[in-house]
Amino acid sequence: MTTHPLWRPFNPGANAARQGERVASRQTTPGAVRAHDESWRERFEEINRVLTESIGDLALSIRHVGSTAVPGLAAKPVIDVDLTVRDVELEHSYMPQLEAAGFRLIFRDVMSGDPHRQLTFAIPNTNLHVWSPGAIEPQRHLVFTDWLRTNSRDRERYNAAKAAASTADGTARYNDLKAAVVYDIYERAFIADPSHDHDPHPRDLA
């Protein structure tokens, strides 16, 4: 079976499981899901300026990803940003500057086999994900965001999943409640990718 290099197995409890790696709380709560706001692009540009002014050339790339980067997609009003530095584990080279600028480290963990640091910013409310070059997750984020920008049907599916997850009862976390739809969207994006072959890897529905 041929598998896309960015494919990862379906893991519906991943977000709940990683909470043990949390080192602090975020400054501003995420808030409720709302319709897409065109000003989110401007909020990203604000964070982009803060990052550029605080770490300059240490930032190899800064990308707006996630739902707030996709016109027509509902989202919690939190700007998701992927930042690539030369080595995410050399925190002394970039963390003091980020913290001095107002970012707060909340996770020190590993995602898709790669070291990851997540920081937050209060206003505009931001999730900053820091990676080393070649990390898998930021590449997945780019595929997902680009696919949703051009695929209206999957935007509708994802909007419906967000609405259901945001109103569900119980102890499951919001991200885990929409994990199945996210996985299925990745499957369609991977199958359609002209750069790599990918045979279907459907979720086990048993």
Could you characterize the architecture of this molecule?
The chain has 206 residues and is of the alpha+beta class. It has a single domain (14-192), classed as Beta Polymerase, domain 2, CATH 3.30.460. It is built from 7 helices and 5 strands, in the order H-H-E-E-H-E-E-E-H-H-H-H. It has a 5-stranded mixed beta sheet with strand order 1-2-5-4-3, sandwiched between helices. Strand 4 (114-121) and strand 5 (126-131) form a beta hairpin. Helix 4 packs across helix 7 (179-192). It starts with 13 loop residues before the first helix and ends in a 14-residue tail after the last helix.
Unreliably modeled segments: none
Order of helices and strands: HHEEHEEEHHHH
- Reported CATH architecture: 2-Layer Sandwich
Strand order of the largest sheet: 1-2-5-4-3
- Strand tally, please? 5
Please name the fourth-level CATH homologous superfamily. Answer: Beta Polymerase, domain 2
By CATH, the topology is Beta Polymerase, domain 2
Number of helices: 7
The overall pLDDT, averaged over residues, is 95
Instruction: State the helicity in percent bands.
Output: 25-40%
How many separate structural domains?
A: 1
How much strand?
Answer: 15-25%
Principal-axes geometry comes out as globular
Quickly list its features.
206 residues, 5-stranded mixed β-sheet, NT_sf, single chain, alpha+beta, Beta Polymerase, domain 2, GrpB-like predicted nucleotidyltransferase (UPF0157 family), 16% strand
